[in-house]
Amino acid sequence: QLSVNKEGIIFEADVSTKPTDDGELLKERVKGVEKNTGEKIKKVIADTGYYETNAVKELVEKGKKCIVPKQPTQEKDKENFRYNKKLDKYKCKRGKELKYITIKRAKGKRFLVYGAKKEDCIKCSLFGKCCKGKGLGKYGRRIMVYEDREFTEKYRKMINRNKRLYKKRKYVIEPVIGIIKSVLRFRRFGLLGVEKVKSEWSLVTTALNLIKIWKLMLNSG
C-alpha cells in the first residue's frame, strides 16, 4: 500500500494481507496520511480497487472530495437499466420492467432488489446472456442497487466530471512503483511475517523519499 502527494513523495506506506478491499484499506490510507502529516486531507484519488460504497460515503460526508471510481464492469451492467423514480421501477434494454422485490443486506450495506417477470426474460432474445436462466424462481433477471440511491447517483455524476483528474493518478503513483522496482531493484520481500515485511517496506519507501528530497534540494539551490 502506498499513498503519495502530487510530487510523488510517499506520505504513507503499509502492507496488507487482504485480497480485496472491504472499505477499511481506503480509510486506513487516509488516516495514515493525516497522522503522518498532521493535516486533514481534502482530496482523495485512488484506484478502482479501493472502491467500497460505505467507505467512500463516509469520507464524502466528512467533507473530502473522494475520486474513487467503481470497477468498470459494475458501472457497465447498471447502464443497461433505467430507473423511473415516479413508478419506482427499472426498465431493461428490451423495455421490460423490473419491480421492487425486497431489501437485501450484504457486507454491511442494504440493497434494494428489483426483478423482472420470469416470463419476460424467458421470451427475451437476450435470455441466456442478460439472464442466465439457472435456478429461476418467481422472477427472471434481478438487480441490486445501493439503498441510498441519491448518493450513488450524485457520486457517479461527480466521477464523470473528474475523469481527467482521475487519469492523472497513474502519472503520479505508477512512476513511484516503477522506480522502486527498476531503480532500487526491489521486486520481492526477503523477510517472513507481516511485521517484518512492514519494516522492510518502510525501509524501502523511506530510502526512495530520501532520494527524492535530495534531488529536490539540488534543483532548488
Which helices and strands appear, and what pairs or packs with what?
Layout: E1 2-4, E2 10-13, H1 24-37, E3 43-45, H2 53-61, E4 65-67, H3 72-78, E5 82-84, E6 89-91, E7 97-106, E8 109-117, H4 118-123, E9 139-146, H5 149-161, H6 163-167, H7 169-182, H8 194-220
- Mass-distribution shape: elongated
Number of helices: 8
* Strands in their spatial order, largest beta sheet: 5-6-7-8-9
Number of strands: 9
Poorly predicted runs = none
Quaternary state of this entry equals single chain
- Mean of the pLDDT scores? 88
Q: What's the SSE pattern? A: EEHEHEHEEEEHEHHHH
What is the CA–CA distance across the termini? 33 Å
As a whole number of angstroms, the C-alpha radius of gyration is 22 Å
